[in-house]
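Human
Can I borrow your eye for a moment on a structure tokenisation matter? Give me a protein, with the fold worked out from its sequence. Write it directly below this note and I will take it from there.

Assistant
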Amino acid sequence: MLEKAFGLSITGFTCIIFQYFVFRSHDLMEQNDALNGQGAADANPQGEQPQATNNQTMESLLESESINVDLPQVGEIRQGTIASINPTQILVSIGAKSEGVISGRELEQLPPEERAELKVGQQLNVYVINPEDASGNVVLSFKRAQEQMSWDNVESMVSDESVIESTIVGFNKGGLIVLVGGLRGFVPASQISSARRSQVSGETPEERWQKMINEPISVRIIEVDRERRRLILSERAASAESRASIKERVINELQEGMVYPGRVTSLADFGAFVNINGADGLVHLSELSWDRLGHPREILSVGQEVKVKVINIDREKKRIGLSLRALQEDPWKSHMEKFTVGQLVEGVVTRLTKFGAFARLEGDIEGLIHISEISDHRIEHPKEILNEGDVKTLRIIRIEPEQHRIGLSLRKVDSAAFADKDFKMLAQEFRNEISDEFTPPEVHDTSEEQDITPPEEPNKEQ
């Protein structure tokens, strides 16, 4: 930008600024010397030499007249002011060392009507594509900033259950295309209201949907996936009856702990919304399954029929907490049937922390060895005795089924307090081994196959 405006490069411009500060500092120093000399002559009429001081140093000058440069970052959205507009580019001041430029394809993507509305001095949000290209320009995009802010907006609308008034702008073989905040959303045919579907006729998409272009429509967002650029809408969800009044009625009818049938209405990163009797409740990601999930779509899809358990009702905030996991068998409990307090087990140290060490006993079952249970003498950190990967014999000292917690001890492995229990367990194991070793072989009855005629009695004389 400097090359185009003044024929200077960034390096040349920096040199000019530096030289200005040097000359400016030199002039101020001479002025201070003259003033100090005059003051000394007045204060010392007998010709004593004053001690010269120089308060205006180069450092203080730079501090007082420094240029604050806030360097932009890739992907950052900034608010700027339009500095100039011409047919090939738009210059935007964003508080950086040079003005940003919207040009090339980024400028061509602006519709003519939007471009005509832009004025010099107008403030707008821009997206930083490149903080400095080969020509030293900050490359900006107006459309990308609009798009990013639109995705932020629609993501917030999912949890708010907002009803959006919009217009049908297109269609495909599966449904209608509707604009929401600059984004193109899709209304599947199954999510179109019964009143609108009653007007549908014809076999081809054109025959069914073409006449609906530019018609107003009320929709609600049911699924947002920014990475896949997926925005799913529903006209059926934006019913004529007030959703607030429906939810209030349903909340008064629901009971905590009860199980209800429902239908998945939308998916988000943090969980799934399930409609029960006309009101939506949230199944948090942690309540979907006992297994660890990254996203609800791994096990659910919009429209799926499910059974859920009501685990929480907040009548003030009108929120319904649901759970799928509560209806599934807890695998942790079945794993824990083989463990008892006082039992000796073998564990692999998986993680060290300041407060203790975690050890894996079996599968994904882990227990905690508190730092106080590692050694009989005081230690500052478990790493003084343990290392990740160590295989240790440990004693179970606590089991908390509801919290899925197991307390382990290394220092109580040889504790006299558990001697009697250890002896009984060893004796039981010994008896089991003896029983298995000396189990008599299975006897088969073969009397029918053998000759069982008793031998003749010997002659008495013989």
